[in-house]
Amino acid sequence: MKNSFKLLTLASSLFFGAALNLQAEEVPLDRIAAVANTGVVLESEIQDLIQSIKQQAKNNNQELPSDNALRVQVMDKLINDSLILQIGERMGVQVSDAQLDETLTNMARDNGLSLEQFRENIIADGLEYEQYRESVRTELISGEVRRASVHRRVYISPQEVGNLLKMMKEQTTNEVEYQLGHILIAFPADPNQEDINAAKTRADKVIELLNNGSDFARIAIASSSDSNALEGGDLGWKTINEMPTLFSEIIDGEAKGTVLGPIRTGLGFSIVKVKDIRGKEVVEIEEVESRHILIEPSVILSEAKAEEMLQGFLDQLNAGEADFAELAKEHSDGPTSVKGGDLGWADPNSYDPAFKDALARLDINEYHKPFRSSFGWHLVQLTGRRTLDATEKMNENRAYQMLYNRKFGMESARWIKETRDQAHIEVFDLEEK
């Protein structure tokens, strides 16, 4: 993703000297705050994100750390974003305006708002809508790059799945969920014993502050090197089996409010707090059955042409002039073409967000107009919908997904650390011109 320099404006100032000379002074309104390989982080980007975080904290009555500590976390995030977007550019990952608009519309709908009302709320919070819109594009690209880069690093053996299924059947704690907070005091690249000792001292100090009543989220924002630091270190609700193994071994049976650690990992020292405990909720999940035709744009097939082709297929289907399976076999890209585009039964959460959202709006046997996902352009038909009791159906797929999510979090942290360690990063002091 190419970074661009924002336009610098010139302001003229009038100075009265002995000869009443007029001088024009150049006043930069933006500057480069950091360089990350071929990308840059602008001071305006830092200030925009800080403003957004402060507004969100104000809305949630959340304490924040000092401005300096918040700036460090924001700088780290923007450097990570820049590096990930550069990887995305090399991978060819793109989010079109149409896909971005559809995502924003879905975000508005999830909040019970129209897109215009959603836009007005963003502006009312003191944010510029176009900047917010581009930040959503960045998050979409970053998510896709992270998934693609980390996925190949995660291996789960059949034995692991079998062991987890057996353990879940024997455990009574499987019906308990813990809301966790996490703070990571990270090691530098290639740490020596002095680095490890310094990190341990910092971790012990953090635990002392927490045990003396300091706000966990505020300390996480100020001190954590984990990717969720700006969310106050919140890991959400998890059962014992959904946690990283190092956490599950010490959290089982602990009381609400307990602070645990420091736990040494390959990345640094982790500190975990049991923020809340509840009985596991009975969760009914919906599975969908669908089929699709995928057209992947290329140098010889434009975005507009791909959408036009699928619209033509949709017109034929609505007129009864074509068969969906035959169209998929002849024209669809991807492995499902040989099956007439049939995707079978699946949890919609396993699909690309745009694909999931499209299915959510369909009735049985209804077609969705052509839309863009990160894979290309789709014409999709919903062929079935059913509800399953997720608490009863603990099959191999569920166990596999739990293991995958557990490993993905750890590998994702390792991946971004390795990416940063291999990058050329230069941060400029505020005083530097």
Structure notes:
This protein has 433 residues and is α+β, with helices and mostly antiparallel strands. It is built from 13 helices and 11 strands. β5 and β6 form a beta hairpin. α1 packs across α2, α2 packs across α5 and α5 crosses α13. The chain is globular and about 70 Å long. The two termini are 26 Å apart. 25% of the residues are buried.
Provide keyphrases for this structure.
single chain, 433 residues, alpha+beta, four-stranded antiparallel β-sheet, 19% strand, globular
Order of helices and strands: EEHHHHHHEHHEHEEEHHEHEEHE
Content of β-strand:
15-25%
Distance between the termini: 26 Å
Task: Kindly provide the radius of gyration, computed on alpha-carbon positions and rounded to a whole number of angstroms.
Answer: 25 Å
- How many strands? 11
Structural class: alpha+beta
| Overall geometry | globular
Whole-number mean pLDDT: 83
Largest sheet: 4 strands, antiparallel
Give the low-pLDDT segments. Answer: 1-27
Regarding quaternary structure, what we see is single chain
Tally of helical runs: 13
Largest sheet: spatial strand order: 4-3-6-5
Helicity level = 40-55%
